[in-house]
Amino acid sequence: MSKMNIALLAGGDSGEYDISIKSANEIRHQLASDGKYNIFLIHVRNNEWSYSSPEGVKILVDKNDFSLPLGPKKVFFDLAFIAIHGTPGEDGKLQGYFEMQRIPVSTCNSFTASLTFNKYFTINVVRSLGVLCAHGMLLHWNQPFDPKEILHTTGLPCFVKPNKGGSSVGMSKVTELSDLREAVSGAFAEDDEVLVEQFIRGREITCGVYRENGKLRVLPLTEIVSKKEFFDYEAKYNPALADEIVPAPLKLDLEVRIKETSALLYQQLNCKGIVRFDYIVADHQIWFLEVNTVPGMTAESIVPKMVKCMGTPMTDFYDALIAEAMQKAR
Known about the structure:
It is a single chain. The protein has three domains: 4-106, 3-Layer(aba) Sandwich (Rossmann fold), CATH 3.40.50; 114-132 and 202-329, ATP-grasp fold, B domain (D-amino Acid Aminotransferase, Chain A, domain 1), CATH 3.30.470.20; 135-198, Dna Ligase, domain 1 (2-Layer Sandwich). It is 33% helix and 29% strand. The protein has helices spanning 17-34, 93-101, 110-117, 119-128, 147-154, 180-188, 233-237, 252-268, 302-310, 314-329; strands spanning 4-11, 37-45, 48-52, 58-60, 68-70, 73-75, 79-82, 132-133, 136-140, 158-162, 172-174, 193-198, 203-212, 215-218, 222-226, 242-245, 275-282, 285-292. The strands form four sheets. Strands 8, 13, 14, 15, 16, 17 and 18 form a seven-stranded mixed beta sheet that branches. It has a five-stranded mixed beta sheet with strand order 4-3-2-1-7, with helices on one face. It has a four-stranded antiparallel beta sheet with strand order 9-12-10-11, covered by helices on one side. Helix 1 (17-34) crosses helix 10 (314-329) and helix 2 runs antiparallel to helix 3. It is globular, with a radius of gyration of 20 Å. The two termini are 19 Å apart. The relative contact order is 0.14. The mean pLDDT is 92.
Protein backbone atom coordinates (compact mmCIF):
# COMPACT_ATOMS: atom_id res chain seq x y z
CA MET A 1 0.00 0.00 0.00
CA SER A 2 1.46 3.36 -1.02
CA LYS A 3 2.02 6.07 1.56
CA MET A 4 -0.30 9.04 1.77
CA ASN A 5 1.07 12.35 0.54
CA ILE A 6 0.38 14.96 3.20
CA ALA A 7 0.91 18.68 2.69
CA LEU A 8 1.72 20.20 6.09
CA LEU A 9 1.02 23.93 5.81
CA ALA A 10 2.85 26.36 8.09
CA GLY A 11 3.59 30.06 8.42
CA GLY A 12 0.77 32.38 7.50
CA ASP A 13 0.35 36.13 7.64
CA SER A 14 -0.44 36.86 11.29
CA GLY A 15 1.45 37.58 14.49
CA GLU A 16 1.33 33.84 15.19
CA TYR A 17 3.74 33.05 12.35
CA ASP A 18 6.60 31.85 14.57
CA ILE A 19 4.34 29.61 16.63
CA SER A 20 2.92 28.08 13.45
CA ILE A 21 6.41 27.17 12.27
CA LYS A 22 7.18 25.57 15.62
CA SER A 23 3.86 23.69 15.60
CA ALA A 24 4.47 22.39 12.09
CA ASN A 25 7.99 21.21 12.90
CA GLU A 26 6.67 19.25 15.87
CA ILE A 27 3.82 17.77 13.81
CA ARG A 28 6.27 16.81 11.05
CA HIS A 29 8.50 15.13 13.62
CA GLN A 30 5.60 13.06 14.96
CA LEU A 31 4.22 12.14 11.54
CA ALA A 32 7.66 11.23 10.20
CA SER A 33 8.30 8.95 13.17
CA ASP A 34 5.07 7.15 12.31
CA GLY A 35 6.53 6.08 8.95
CA LYS A 36 3.09 5.94 7.32
CA TYR A 37 3.16 9.20 5.37
CA ASN A 38 5.13 11.25 2.89
CA ILE A 39 5.31 14.66 4.57
CA PHE A 40 5.83 17.84 2.56
CA LEU A 41 6.18 21.00 4.65
CA ILE A 42 4.58 23.81 2.65
CA HIS A 43 5.60 27.29 3.75
CA VAL A 44 2.83 29.85 3.26
CA ARG A 45 3.67 33.55 3.40
CA ASN A 46 1.58 36.12 1.57
CA ASN A 47 1.19 34.92 -2.02
CA GLU A 48 4.21 32.62 -1.99
CA TRP A 49 3.61 28.96 -1.17
CA SER A 50 6.79 26.91 -1.33
CA TYR A 51 8.47 23.66 -0.43
CA SER A 52 12.16 23.27 0.36
CA SER A 53 13.61 20.01 -0.94
CA PRO A 54 16.07 17.98 1.18
CA GLU A 55 18.80 19.61 -0.92
CA GLY A 56 17.55 23.06 0.06
CA VAL A 57 15.98 23.92 -3.29
CA LYS A 58 12.87 26.10 -3.04
CA ILE A 59 10.01 24.82 -5.18
CA LEU A 60 6.85 26.85 -5.64
CA VAL A 61 3.46 25.21 -5.29
CA ASP A 62 1.29 25.20 -8.40
CA LYS A 63 -1.87 26.75 -6.96
CA ASN A 64 -3.93 25.81 -10.01
CA ASP A 65 -4.14 22.25 -8.73
CA PHE A 66 -2.16 22.41 -5.46
CA SER A 67 0.72 20.29 -6.67
CA LEU A 68 4.51 20.29 -6.50
CA PRO A 69 6.56 19.96 -9.71
CA LEU A 70 9.22 17.56 -8.44
CA GLY A 71 11.27 16.00 -11.23
CA PRO A 72 9.42 14.75 -14.29
CA LYS A 73 6.13 14.32 -12.41
CA LYS A 74 3.94 16.43 -10.20
CA VAL A 75 3.27 15.46 -6.59
CA PHE A 76 -0.41 15.60 -5.66
CA PHE A 77 -1.72 15.46 -2.12
CA ASP A 78 -4.20 13.24 -0.33
CA LEU A 79 -4.60 15.61 2.63
CA ALA A 80 -3.82 19.18 3.63
CA PHE A 81 -2.80 19.27 7.30
CA ILE A 82 -3.20 22.90 8.34
CA ALA A 83 -0.89 24.13 11.11
CA ILE A 84 -1.33 27.85 10.42
CA HIS A 85 -2.63 29.84 13.39
CA GLY A 86 -4.46 32.98 12.32
CA THR A 87 -4.91 33.95 8.69
CA PRO A 88 -5.14 32.23 6.22
CA GLY A 89 -5.21 28.88 8.01
CA GLU A 90 -7.69 29.46 10.81
CA ASP A 91 -10.12 31.95 9.24
CA GLY A 92 -11.53 29.81 6.44
CA LYS A 93 -9.47 31.10 3.51
CA LEU A 94 -7.35 27.98 3.03
CA GLN A 95 -10.29 25.73 3.83
CA GLY A 96 -12.29 27.37 1.04
CA TYR A 97 -9.41 26.93 -1.40
CA PHE A 98 -9.06 23.23 -0.57
CA GLU A 99 -12.80 22.70 -0.77
CA MET A 100 -12.67 23.98 -4.35
CA GLN A 101 -9.71 21.67 -5.03
CA ARG A 102 -11.60 18.78 -3.40
CA ILE A 103 -8.67 18.05 -1.10
CA PRO A 104 -9.51 16.96 2.47
CA VAL A 105 -8.25 19.14 5.33
CA SER A 106 -7.42 18.37 8.94
CA THR A 107 -9.60 21.19 10.28
CA CYS A 108 -13.22 22.27 10.17
CA ASN A 109 -14.80 23.56 6.96
CA SER A 110 -14.52 27.10 5.62
CA PHE A 111 -17.79 28.32 7.12
CA THR A 112 -17.07 27.09 10.65
CA ALA A 113 -13.50 28.38 10.44
CA SER A 114 -14.68 31.82 9.35
CA LEU A 115 -17.35 31.98 12.05
CA THR A 116 -15.20 30.78 14.95
CA PHE A 117 -12.29 33.03 13.99
CA ASN A 118 -14.57 35.98 14.65
CA LYS A 119 -14.77 36.19 18.44
CA TYR A 120 -17.80 38.50 18.50
CA PHE A 121 -19.91 36.34 16.17
CA THR A 122 -18.87 33.16 17.97
CA ILE A 123 -19.84 34.57 21.37
CA ASN A 124 -23.30 35.43 20.10
CA VAL A 125 -23.83 31.93 18.69
CA VAL A 126 -22.51 30.28 21.86
CA ARG A 127 -24.71 32.51 24.03
CA SER A 128 -27.75 31.41 21.99
CA LEU A 129 -26.95 27.83 23.03
CA GLY A 130 -27.39 28.77 26.68
CA VAL A 131 -23.71 29.14 27.59
CA LEU A 132 -22.61 32.11 29.67
CA CYS A 133 -20.46 34.69 27.84
CA ALA A 134 -18.94 38.00 28.95
CA HIS A 135 -20.55 41.28 27.89
CA GLY A 136 -18.65 43.15 25.20
CA MET A 137 -18.65 45.72 22.41
CA LEU A 138 -17.29 45.42 18.89
CA LEU A 139 -15.36 48.36 17.42
CA HIS A 140 -14.63 48.85 13.72
CA TRP A 141 -11.58 50.51 12.24
CA ASN A 142 -11.95 54.20 11.46
CA GLN A 143 -15.26 54.54 13.28
CA PRO A 144 -15.53 56.79 16.35
CA PHE A 145 -16.23 55.31 19.76
CA ASP A 146 -17.02 56.65 23.21
CA PRO A 147 -14.84 55.09 25.95
CA LYS A 148 -17.44 55.90 28.61
CA GLU A 149 -20.18 54.15 26.62
CA ILE A 150 -17.96 51.08 26.24
CA LEU A 151 -17.19 50.91 29.94
CA HIS A 152 -20.88 51.31 30.74
CA THR A 153 -21.25 47.89 29.07
CA THR A 154 -18.05 46.18 30.19
CA GLY A 155 -17.04 47.91 33.39
CA LEU A 156 -13.46 47.98 34.67
CA PRO A 157 -11.21 46.19 34.41
CA CYS A 158 -11.84 45.01 30.85
CA PHE A 159 -9.96 43.20 28.11
CA VAL A 160 -9.20 44.75 24.72
CA LYS A 161 -8.32 42.31 21.96
CA PRO A 162 -8.30 41.92 18.17
CA ASN A 163 -11.63 40.40 17.20
CA LYS A 164 -9.96 38.03 14.76
CA GLY A 165 -6.69 36.62 16.06
CA GLY A 166 -5.08 34.31 18.57
CA SER A 167 -2.25 33.70 21.04
CA SER A 168 -3.29 36.95 22.80
CA VAL A 169 -1.38 38.99 20.20
CA GLY A 170 -2.47 42.64 20.54
CA MET A 171 -4.44 41.91 23.69
CA SER A 172 -4.30 44.05 26.84
CA LYS A 173 -6.04 44.44 30.17
CA VAL A 174 -7.36 47.92 30.94
CA THR A 175 -7.89 49.09 34.51
CA GLU A 176 -8.30 52.85 33.96
CA LEU A 177 -10.57 54.79 31.61
CA SER A 178 -7.60 56.89 30.47
CA ASP A 179 -5.82 53.78 29.15
CA LEU A 180 -8.65 52.52 26.94
CA ARG A 181 -7.85 54.47 23.75
CA GLU A 182 -4.21 53.37 23.74
CA ALA A 183 -5.24 49.74 24.26
CA VAL A 184 -7.77 49.94 21.41
CA SER A 185 -5.11 51.49 19.16
CA GLY A 186 -2.74 48.60 19.96
CA ALA A 187 -5.39 46.04 19.09
CA PHE A 188 -6.22 47.83 15.85
CA ALA A 189 -2.58 47.34 14.84
CA GLU A 190 -3.41 43.62 14.55
CA ASP A 191 -6.95 43.69 13.15
CA ASP A 192 -9.59 45.99 11.67
CA GLU A 193 -12.04 44.97 14.40
CA VAL A 194 -11.51 45.19 18.15
CA LEU A 195 -13.49 43.49 20.90
CA VAL A 196 -13.71 45.14 24.32
CA GLU A 197 -14.91 42.61 26.85
CA GLN A 198 -15.97 42.40 30.47
CA PHE A 199 -13.32 41.03 32.83
CA ILE A 200 -14.42 37.96 34.79
CA ARG A 201 -12.25 37.02 37.74
CA GLY A 202 -11.86 33.27 38.04
CA ARG A 203 -9.88 30.22 37.05
CA GLU A 204 -8.94 29.70 33.40
CA ILE A 205 -9.75 26.21 32.17
CA THR A 206 -9.28 24.81 28.68
CA CYS A 207 -10.70 21.67 27.08
CA GLY A 208 -9.61 19.81 23.94
CA VAL A 209 -12.03 17.81 21.78
CA TYR A 210 -11.59 15.68 18.66
CA ARG A 211 -13.15 12.68 16.95
CA GLU A 212 -11.72 9.21 16.71
CA ASN A 213 -13.50 6.55 14.69
CA GLY A 214 -16.51 8.84 14.54
CA LYS A 215 -16.78 9.20 18.32
CA LEU A 216 -16.06 12.35 20.32
CA ARG A 217 -13.00 12.24 22.53
CA VAL A 218 -12.73 14.88 25.24
CA LEU A 219 -9.18 15.38 26.52
CA PRO A 220 -8.26 15.94 30.18
CA LEU A 221 -8.96 19.51 31.28
CA THR A 222 -6.08 21.92 31.87
CA GLU A 223 -5.96 24.82 34.30
CA ILE A 224 -3.81 27.78 33.28
CA VAL A 225 -2.27 29.80 36.08
CA SER A 226 -0.46 32.81 34.63
CA LYS A 227 2.28 34.49 36.63
CA LYS A 228 1.65 37.69 34.71
CA GLU A 229 -1.36 40.00 34.76
CA PHE A 230 -3.09 37.58 32.37
CA PHE A 231 -2.23 34.69 30.04
CA ASP A 232 -0.64 36.82 27.31
CA TYR A 233 1.54 35.83 24.33
CA GLU A 234 4.73 35.73 26.39
CA ALA A 235 3.18 33.63 29.15
CA LYS A 236 1.72 31.19 26.62
CA TYR A 237 5.10 30.29 25.17
CA ASN A 238 7.45 30.79 28.13
CA PRO A 239 7.02 27.88 30.59
CA ALA A 240 8.48 29.99 33.40
CA LEU A 241 5.61 32.48 33.20
CA ALA A 242 2.63 30.14 33.56
CA ASP A 243 1.70 26.84 35.13
CA GLU A 244 -0.43 24.50 33.03
CA ILE A 245 -1.93 21.92 35.36
CA VAL A 246 -3.09 18.69 33.69
CA PRO A 247 -5.51 17.37 34.76
CA ALA A 248 -7.11 20.47 36.21
CA PRO A 249 -7.90 20.12 39.93
CA LEU A 250 -11.66 20.58 39.72
CA LYS A 251 -14.62 19.09 41.51
CA LEU A 252 -16.18 16.29 39.50
CA ASP A 253 -19.44 18.13 38.76
CA LEU A 254 -17.56 21.12 37.30
CA GLU A 255 -15.32 18.86 35.25
CA VAL A 256 -18.33 17.03 33.84
CA ARG A 257 -20.15 20.29 33.00
CA ILE A 258 -17.14 21.75 31.20
CA LYS A 259 -16.62 18.58 29.18
CA GLU A 260 -20.33 18.37 28.32
CA THR A 261 -20.35 22.03 27.27
CA SER A 262 -17.27 21.49 25.09
CA ALA A 263 -18.82 18.44 23.43
CA LEU A 264 -22.01 20.42 22.79
CA LEU A 265 -20.12 23.34 21.24
CA TYR A 266 -17.96 21.04 19.13
CA GLN A 267 -21.05 19.50 17.60
CA GLN A 268 -23.22 22.62 17.34
CA LEU A 269 -20.43 24.66 15.73
CA ASN A 270 -19.73 21.74 13.37
CA CYS A 271 -16.09 21.51 14.41
CA LYS A 272 -13.63 19.03 12.92
CA GLY A 273 -10.13 17.98 13.88
CA ILE A 274 -8.63 18.95 17.22
CA VAL A 275 -10.33 21.99 18.76
CA ARG A 276 -9.68 23.71 22.10
CA PHE A 277 -12.34 25.58 24.09
CA ASP A 278 -11.32 28.15 26.71
CA TYR A 279 -13.38 29.08 29.78
CA ILE A 280 -13.33 31.06 33.00
CA VAL A 281 -14.79 29.31 36.04
CA ALA A 282 -16.13 31.80 38.59
CA ASP A 283 -18.46 31.10 41.52
CA HIS A 284 -19.16 27.63 40.18
CA GLN A 285 -20.31 29.09 36.86
CA ILE A 286 -18.70 28.40 33.48
CA TRP A 287 -18.05 31.36 31.20
CA PHE A 288 -17.05 30.72 27.58
CA LEU A 289 -14.04 32.71 26.34
CA GLU A 290 -13.18 31.48 22.84
CA VAL A 291 -12.57 28.51 20.57
CA ASN A 292 -9.30 27.61 18.85
CA THR A 293 -9.82 25.51 15.72
CA VAL A 294 -6.07 25.29 14.96
CA PRO A 295 -4.55 25.18 18.46
CA GLY A 296 -0.81 25.31 19.06
CA MET A 297 0.93 21.95 18.71
CA THR A 298 4.48 22.79 19.80
CA ALA A 299 6.14 20.63 22.44
CA GLU A 300 5.21 23.35 24.97
CA SER A 301 1.59 23.67 23.81
CA ILE A 302 -1.42 22.64 25.86
CA VAL A 303 -3.00 20.02 23.58
CA PRO A 304 0.06 17.72 23.46
CA LYS A 305 0.17 17.87 27.26
CA MET A 306 -3.50 16.84 27.37
CA VAL A 307 -2.85 13.94 25.00
CA LYS A 308 0.12 12.79 27.07
CA CYS A 309 -1.99 12.98 30.25
CA MET A 310 -4.64 10.81 28.58
CA GLY A 311 -1.94 8.22 27.90
CA THR A 312 -2.27 8.28 24.11
CA PRO A 313 0.94 8.31 22.02
CA MET A 314 1.13 11.42 19.84
CA THR A 315 1.55 9.25 16.75
CA ASP A 316 -1.77 7.53 17.51
CA PHE A 317 -3.40 10.92 18.11
CA TYR A 318 -2.27 12.23 14.71
CA ASP A 319 -3.27 8.97 13.02
CA ALA A 320 -6.78 9.49 14.43
CA LEU A 321 -6.95 13.09 13.16
CA ILE A 322 -5.81 12.04 9.69
CA ALA A 323 -8.17 9.06 9.52
CA GLU A 324 -11.10 11.25 10.57
CA ALA A 325 -10.22 13.90 7.99
CA MET A 326 -10.07 11.28 5.26
CA GLN A 327 -13.32 9.68 6.44
CA LYS A 328 -15.28 12.94 6.30
CA ALA A 329 -14.02 13.47 2.74
CA ARG A 330 -15.56 10.25 1.47
